Amino acid sequence: MFLEFLSRRYWKQFAAIAAVHIITASYGVTVGWPAPIIPLLRSPETPLPSGPVTVDEASWIGSTLCIGGTIGTILFAIIHTYFGKKIALLLTSVPHIILWTLILVGDNVWYIYGARFCSGLTGGGVVSVVPLYIADIADKKIRGTLGSLTIIFINIGLVFIYAAGNYLPYDLIPKIMLVSPVAFIVLVSFLPETPYCLLKKGRLIEAERSLMFYRNISDQQYQTAEFTTEFDELKSFVHTQSTQSRICWADFTTPEAKRGLFIGVFVMALNQFSGIFAILTYAGTILQMSGTGIDPNVALVLVAILNICGNLTSFAIIDRAGRKIMLLLSATGVGLALAVLGAHSYLLTIGYDLQGAEWLPVLALALTLFLGAIGITNIPFFIVPEVMPPKLRSIGSTISGTLLCMFAFVTVKLYPIMMVNIHIYGTVWISSGVCAIAVVIIIFLIPETKGKNLNVQSDSKK
């Protein structure tokens, strides 16, 4: 039934977004790269001629990505605003090619810093362009499903690097990864610019053809009344935006804008201060320090696979269950799982004999990532365009994406230092407390946006 539904109406949207997500999956590889590689770089067997890296250098390896992400979010927001989303997407491949080249030829930690910075530039492009691209081309009935694909592809990259990073030679991984941006460029080049961007440039005929492409309508004679209504709404929406005055401070002071900005900042803060991104970055180190008796290399792959299972769960039910309930379940579950992980670490630290419970840290970590994947890690990327006023949608996404990278820098930089100074239990208990506070905010302040029409000025006009 699902395949029939997919093939008849929506398959081109899925295919287009799958092509776009080649760079997303490649970015996922760079997100997870430190997890198996930092333990190697810190060991006597380090591939760097300059010698093993220190704890401080390892924290910079993790966090330099976030500096690049902050700059990349702003840079690619400017590019897609003036040149369109297709050009912006294609340009995300440039820093990606540079980063793997630097890792391939680098002989000291500074090359890795540069590579991680370039990885952040690509990530900034993914954060700032991909959600808006999805919002532009997706049918509102499956927008949440398509939005969930972003984190799925990131985690496909994680599974690859968690497995390959422990078994492939250090210099073979960049050689493999240099293939992905080439494939990305070839496939995305065949996709049309989004209808929204084309209408903004006054290219009406091309915009209609673009929407026909993404709605799988081969010829004008097959246009339905639903298609005509959607295109008319989009034209009216773009026309209204073009005739509006430029964005000014007063636009940010309306109740709708304040609520949208608050929600954007909140979900991005939860995304990072829940600790999930830092845990993905340092999963190998956390497993080593947690006292698990399971081979950390095997545990990393199992954790990443369960993470994808969470993504697939969200993918399957997000447009039926709704954003709010999934975010609430995710924050609650992650908070409890981190509390359990911290309790195990604390009891181990004070000398309790936990023989027979060595599996518990792996289970807690897997549940953290699984439950995070059904809400915390994916919903922020597509809920922001849904809660922002249309006039502020692009700049609101840029602000939220920039803050996401800044929050990520703080958590990724501090996590390894905190794990040394206040142990794993103190570190993850802080993140668990963040989730507890988030649960209250979600219950009382976060609206449901399932099925919201983005091509009208307000819900009242639907």
TrEMBL record:
Query: What GO CC annotations are associated with the protein?
Result: plasma membrane
Q: How does it sit in the membrane?
A: Multi-pass membrane protein
Gene Ontology MF annotations: transmembrane transporter activity
According to the entry, every stretch annotated as the Major facilitator superfamily (MFS) profile domain falls at 1-450
Which keywords describe this protein according to UniProt? Cell membrane, Membrane, Sugar transport, Transmembrane, Transmembrane helix, Transport
Q: Where's it found, cell-wise?
A: Cell membrane
Does Cell membrane count among this protein's keywords? yes
Q: Which domain of life is it from?
A: Eukaryota
Question: What protein am I looking at?
Answer: Major facilitator superfamily (MFS) profile domain-containing protein
Residues annotated as transmembrane: 58-80, 87-105, 111-134, 146-164, 176-199, 261-286, 298-318, 325-347, 359-383, 395-416, 422-446
